[in-house]
Structures are given as C-alpha cells and as structure tokens.
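A quick aside before the break. I want you to see a complete sequence-to-structure record at least once, exactly as it would be stored in a machine-readable document. Don't worry about memorizing anything.
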Amino acid sequence: MSKERLRIMNTSSRILAVARGGLRVFQVLLVMGLIVAAAATLILAIRPDLFPSMYDNDPSSLQFLLPGLSIVLPEPVTTFLAPSFWAVTVGTRIPVVLVVLYITSQFKTIVDSISTGSPFTTSNAARIRNCGIAILVGAAVETASRSIWGFYVMNHVSVPGVTFNPRLSLATEATFAGLIVLIIAEVFRYGVLLQEEHDLTV
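That is the input. The structure line, written in tokens, reads:
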C-alpha cells in the first residue's frame, strides 16, 4: 500500500470518527431538547398561569420579520396572550424535532457502515430513501405546524391596533430537499445493483 493511499485512509478514518462523534452529540442534544419540550408543554398545559398573559412591549421588542424586511412598531404596546399560548408554541415544535431525530439516526447508521468498509449496500440505499421520505414528511409537518400556530395566534393573541391574518406557509425548501434526496437514493440503489451484477459476473 502506497504512502499516499495510507494517508488518505487515515484522514478518512479521522473524518468519520469526528462525524460519528458529532452525530452522537447531536442525537443526545435532540433527545434532551425533546424531553424538555415535552415536559414544558405538559407543565404549561397544566399550569398556564406560570407565565403572564399580558406583556408591555417597547417598540424594539415587538417586531414583524419578513424576508428582507423588519417592521418595528413606533410606540409601546400591550400584548395579550391566551393562557395556552406557550404550550401551543412549544408543542408544535415537537413533531419537527422527532423527524429530525429520525433522519439523524438514519444518517448515523450510514456513516457507521462507511467506517466498516461496506457503504454500497441496498440497506444504505433504503436508508437514504427513508431520509428523503422523512424530509418530505417533515416539510408537511412544518407546514401544518406553521398553519396551526398562525390560526392560534389570530384567535388567542391580541395586540391593540394589530390584525393577525394567518396564511398557508409551505416549507418549499424542505420539500425540494426531500425530492433531491429521493433522486439520490434511486441513483445510489441503481449503482449498488450494477455493482452486485458486476461482482456476480466476475
């Protein structure tokens, strides 16, 4: 084995080790965040009085963020929140975190298979496809969460002089990414099948 090839293999091993460690830490953080979010949602649903329902906002603390634009109200306003506001706000994030956790677990399994020297398998092709499907599901969940939160704010949050009009906000970037991953999965699966046919003919 040449020195150059050995150097490349050592570098790859270090990169994979860092990737596995990073994914493991990310998974732990996701699980911890999921537990905290679930506990917070439950506590806020049972004891909504833990947070005040009225806030006196100065102009800099109440902003409306749009793509390329930030709208700041010119004078102090009072915001009235329904008791269940924080429970709904946190609770609508939980399904998205679950999807991300699933994608992370699939990706970690793929990285583990690379470290064992057998990445080109139909199992990994299926995992990549599962990631694509999960991203599409996550996009749908994110769209639903945005819509639920928008309609909730319209009916349960009051700011004098401000009208909330919810709208359908599609997670187009995630949908596009999911479709790309599905295409990559099919290309990968086709490559694996060609490699298996080649191995059988040799």
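Two observations worth writing down. The radius of gyration is 24 Å. The beta strands are 54-57, 63-66, 69-72, 77-81, 157-158. We'll return to this after the break.
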